[in-house]
Design a protein that fits this description.
Layout: E1 9-13, E2 16-17, H1 41-55, E3 59-64, E4 66-67, H2 69-74, E5 82-85, H3 93-107, E6 115-118, E7 127-129, H4 135-151, H5 155-169, E8 174-177, H6 180-190, E9 197-199, H7 206-210, H8 213-226, E10 232-237, H9 246-256, E11 261-266, H10 271-280, E12 287-291, H11 296-302, E13 305-308, H12 317-324, E14 329-332, E15 345-348, H13 354-363, H14 367-382, H15 386-410
Parallel strand pairs: 1-3, 1-6, 2-4, 3-5, 6-7, 7-8, 8-9, 10-11, 10-13, 11-12, 13-14, 14-15
Length: about 400
């Protein structure tokens, strides 16, 4: 907090307070292809925000149903938030979502908090982080109108859309968006008042990603030693290979007919059906499934570029992480992170346009072109560090608290 000012008491609401692999001091750093990261994008964002808020002098209480005890204990005292553990049923996701929302509302309803910042799908908060965009928009991009209508009948999808819809209709809640892709959907599809929407891109640990350069060089040498005919390495990072656009990349690689190109696929999914598809296309030996990785920063440094034809990502953190390592990126206009990466990213408008992706990959064949793109990506990422992100959040908190106090005084 500013000198002489009382620190704000912020409640961070998140289902699981766990860090991503590599973001905890003293964590194991050795690559492990079988390692399953213990957090996704929203969990890691809440983790980074909570600890950075504490470091910058605010008081923070995390309200969650699960904590990574070892990681929590490893935090320095000036980064460790207080915590409230909620007991909710977890066996069935629709019940869990509803129960967590209600329990979080009860836990944050007293006057001890200056502001409640929701990182999960919860009905009641002062500031709601729409980190995944809107669920209705996700269903639209993934399944189209017919598929969306069918999935809207499932209890899980109905609960998620009901909670979000209630938040979007509530004029008293502010909404934090990481991209204009999301804000446009909230305004156009859900009729949210634009004055309630506050745009703030996600952050990235720039130092951590830059420091992995030597490990990346070592990985690249190992890979090229094993496969002397490989000349260019591309990485598709992300779990759920269909949504991340693997079919389109396979089509693009087949069109390129470049025998020196290799695609490394890192993330959680069953590789079996994809390996069979690769074999049918005659691409065996050129497409490699690595499984979940804890050493993504090194992988970014090891490859020539990252390709992510995602069908819908409110903000694909992997593209910002790759940018922090100076790696050029090819992705879609339906990836909100692309808005922030300037000339470091090549954007394909249609996520199903394999020909456009083949052209984009071919345009980065030249080392000098890749280097210029990568340098531009690194410059963009440096402006999006976590310290700057949280400073912007604190200004937003102050504006929200000031507005609330003014409203209370008027009444």
């Amino acid at each position: 907090a500013e000198p002489g000012a009382r620190p704000l008491h912020i409640a961070i609401v998140i289902e699981r307070f766990v860090p991503n692999a590599g973001s905890v001091p003293n964590a194991r750093s050795a690559p492990n292809a079988g390692f399953v990261p213990n957090a996704g994008g929203v969990e890691n964002t809440a983790w980074q925000v909570a600890r950075e808020l504490r470091r910058q002098g605010e008081r923070v209480t995390v309200v969650a149903r699960a904590f990574d005890e070892a990681a929590y204990a490893s935090l320095p005292a000036d980064q460790r938030p207080e915590r409230v553990v909620l007991r909710v049923p977890t066996a069935w996701q629709p019940t869990r979502e509803l129960a967590f929302s209600r329990a979080a509302a009860r836990a944050t309803s007293d006057a001890r908090f200056d502001l409640v910042h929701g990182f999960a799908r919860t009905r009641h908060q002062d500031l709601y982080r729409a980190g995944g965009g809107s669920h209705a928009e996700y269903l639209h991009h993934m399944y189209g109108p017919a598929g969306r209508a069918l999935r809207a009948l499932s209890p899980r999808h109905r609960v998620l859309q009901a909670i979000e819809g209630a938040v979007f209709r509530d004029p008293h809640q502010w909404i934090q968006c990481a991209s204009r892709l999301v804000s446009r959907a909230l305004i156009g599809r859900h009729g949210v008042d634009p004055t309630r929407i506050h745009l703030l891109p996600n952050g990235v640990d720039v130092a951590r990603h830059r420091s992995a350069a030597a490990d990346g060089d070592s990985l690249r040498r190992q890979w090229l030693d094993r496969d002397p005919s490989a000349e260019r390495l591309w990485l598709l990072p992300g779990s759920g290979f269909r949504r991340k656009g693997l079919p389109v990349v396979l089509d693009a690689i087949e069109r390129l007919a470049d025998p020196g190109l290799r695609l490394l696929v890192a993330g959680r999914d069953d590789p079996g059906p994809w390996q069979r598809r690769v074999a049918r296309r005659g691409l065996t030996g050129r497409i490699h499934f690595l499984g979940p990785r804890r050493d993504l920063p090194a992988l970014y440094h090891a490859v020539d570029g990252v390709v992510l034809p995602t069908r819908y990502d409110a903000f694909a953190n992997v593209t910002l992480e790759a940018a922090a390592t100076g790696t050029p990126i090819v992705t879609t206009a339906t990836n909100g992170a692309a808005e922030w990466l300037g000339e470091g990213v090549l954007i394909v408008d249609d996520p199903d346009d394999a020909e456009a992706f083949a052209t984009a990959l071919a345009s980065l064949h030249d080392d000098a072109v890749r280097r210029r793109r990568g340098e531009a990506a690194a410059r963009a990422a440096r402006a999006l560090d976590w310290s700057s992100h949280v400073k912007s959040l604190r200004r937003l908190y102050a504006a929200r608290v000031g507005r609330s106090e003014a409203g209370t005084a008027a009444r």
